[in-house]
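Submission sheet (multi-component)
Chains listed below:
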Amino acid sequence: MSKAPKTAITPTRSEDYPEWYQQVIKAADLAETSPVRGCMVIKPWGYALWENIQAKLDADFKATGHRNAYFPLFIPKSFIEKEAEHVDGFAKECAVVTHARLEDDGTGQLVPAGELDEPLVVRPTSETIIGDVFSRWIQSYRDLPLLINQWANVVRWEMRTRLFLRTSEFLWQEGHTAHATPDEAEEETLKMLEVYARFAEDYMAMPVIKGRKTDDEKFPGAVDTYTIEAMMQDHKALQAGTSHFLGQNFSKSSNIKFLSSESIEEYAWTTSWGVSTRLIGGLIMTHSDDDGLICPPRIAPAHIAIIPVIPKPALADKVNTFCDQLAEDLAKIQYLGAPIKVELDKRDIRGGEKAWSWIKKGIPIRLEVGPRDIDNHSVFVGRRDKGSKEKYGQNRDEFIATAVETLEDIQKLLFQRALSYREAASKVIHSEKDFYAFFQDDQPSGFAIAHCNMTDALAEKLQKDLKVTARCIPLENNETAGTCIFSGDASDKKIVFAKSY
Amino acid sequence: MSKAPKTAITPTRSEDYPEWYQQVIKAADLAETSPVRGCMVIKPWGYALWENIQAKLDADFKATGHRNAYFPLFIPKSFIEKEAEHVDGFAKECAVVTHARLEDDGTGQLVPAGELDEPLVVRPTSETIIGDVFSRWIQSYRDLPLLINQWANVVRWEMRTRLFLRTSEFLWQEGHTAHATPDEAEEETLKMLEVYARFAEDYMAMPVIKGRKTDDEKFPGAVDTYTIEAMMQDHKALQAGTSHFLGQNFSKSSNIKFLSSESIEEYAWTTSWGVSTRLIGGLIMTHSDDDGLICPPRIAPAHIAIIPVIPKPALADKVNTFCDQLAEDLAKIQYLGAPIKVELDKRDIRGGEKAWSWIKKGIPIRLEVGPRDIDNHSVFVGRRDKGSKEKYGQNRDEFIATAVETLEDIQKLLFQRALSYREAASKVIHSEKDFYAFFQDDQPSGFAIAHCNMTDALAEKLQKDLKVTARCIPLENNETAGTCIFSGDASDKKIVFAKSY
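Outcome: structure written.
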């Protein structure tokens, strides 16, 4: 038997990536499947990640003039039917409410009763219901722009589900805005894409490519869909957020009209944009290693775990007193406008088990503190971005004085590492042959960047032949003219292709 | 025609209280009905109230050791059926999902398809689904106490709905905890009741009576339900929050067992507790007047509206510059740990309309600032707790220096006013005759406090005769022995009775 280094997660990434992903979630106590098909339970450590994502994005949305509101969970069937492409996109996978109560059928069995006149769909997204509301809120150009966001749960009846990445119910935010001109609406669409990109890179430490979707990959009903695409450690792409320019498609189907300053009645120009708990799946697959989750400090549920090491009961007081004071002093330090979050782990379990539990949960910094450290006025530091054995002693006061710097250093390093990873697995491709070779099953795959004039037929062929899709037409550094590698025609844009989640 | 003073809200409270309530909501732009029966749209100003309620309660929950998590929206029918009283309480009013997609029936009509093997209920409350999850999370006494909270939407298919007070879908939080002993669980139940009471009184400025529900008013499946009851301005009671000691009822039906420190397998003792968007209904009916909403400063979406008064265009620059600086200086002041929220209203509408819009929205302080005020280095102050005409000039710097004090003064006054109101409409009753007289339709009604040994038959009779219910058995100042006013038997507790929402 070959002796591989022991890792906390079995299997490792290279052994079985999908199973590794499930095991990281389990080991970090992030989420679990529920008895309701496709619906997940988000556990406290996973939900705290979502709360941190929410808090930062919510502040960003408000800083860009948006206000939160709340719209009904249910959408009348007739609303969903209003926009033709939209209904095609969502009717196949929606939860349908048909009855308003359960009733004893006479045999002691409860059966659905009180059938509704019109079935209700549990919202898969809210363009149609919000469009209906907007049609009443908007009368004049003075009511525009209308900039609204909703934090909500949505349901899409997925056949194959995977925790965070694809679940029947998920949590998200959906921005919905209406504008007087197409230019303003497009500007909004791109502004929110930029908010997402900055958040993904600066907070989740997840490098993203901003781009426009090709027609075959657009949101059902959109004129243009913009996306941020991230690379996971199996070289697949993850669509991490989308921002849609809806033109007048939904304002026409929902009758959102306004009287312009010249007293002309016009349809409004609308947008919608969203990110979801899927971001947590992206976070896991961007940073985690074979020892479990790695949380970027800026989004971590807690920043520092203190693990008292008590070799014999007589020393418990000494160690605990030191650790209590350490926790107190650390919690006085501000990080991103709030106190550093410290977990002082006094559980009655073995020290090794304790340390490994925090490694698996991905806490950025672990401090192990025993009697000898206390005598030296020092702490033993483990950074989660380093290997589990790479620990170092540091003067206690110096550790405290540099704690924020250390957290920011970890944050930066995680981003750089992910960026290098993506760059190493990205390749500019110049021929169809090389393209096919790049995506063969025995190859590492990754992001293929190629000049291409996409067509529906080509999209279908690539999906069928290689399970590859156009992820996006990058918005930046994409100005050189070239030749479509598939048709040989002139092409003015490159497309990023990948296998994807 | 008699000349009544003009009010912003028509009808007034005394003319038609229920309609006044709807008009206050409309005038303050808090919420509206939606095309989905019984579901409301919460508009930005109303949602901001909810966000402030959430932020403070969430901090309180975390400070008392609770962590947030998220559980599925759907509950399998078989789960709801597990607890007999529970299913009786909720089966009659629940949204039932029976299908997983919409499909063209061949005539171009979309109909529900993909029938589910087992119908799913949209959660009316989550004891059963969370109980199932807890049964897996809890193995040993070391896993206890388990202190979880969820912020979520829930659905109860109400027949008669009213914005915020009773809607088919509403937003709430539901705490769910499990403990090793009944004492601990009861302690938790009462601790969270106290958190609610402190929040209601100190933040919503809404005086509440803490009490225990009589058996006929308990939560379906609870051993004991505790409540906070507030008095509205029509003298009716509003149940503003409840905290339930569930005993082992749900742990037995959900099989939540743990191994005690003596290695004995025992059922856990559980609690649940919740408040909802109903609190906003309580806020409206506690403080608002015939000019519209009044927001207690500690929970207000914004604290101060600045209204530039520009008598002629040439003075616009002067006024706007002064107001910009005023807004900037005010926003530097901390109130409850965050900057004072200022609305600088530069809309292009008449000044009077502008001032009234803020009065109707209930902003605690309005500042009207015209050229003459600027010459005097002063501002014209309108406090929402005073009459709309009661305004006063104040030195600008003095206003800024005392802004927090003024806000806290308004907060205190609103509470005191509501408390006096309740006290004036509460009466200790010593006989059945007086009790019936108190609740006659031509009487002002209110809270009747009387010694009573409640029975199901009596509860039914009072409901039928007077539409009156036992609101609670107060926890405080309720130790004197007496005689049940209905049966004449000895009674050791007084009960608060009222008509209620």
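Remark: Chain B has a mean pLDDT of 96.
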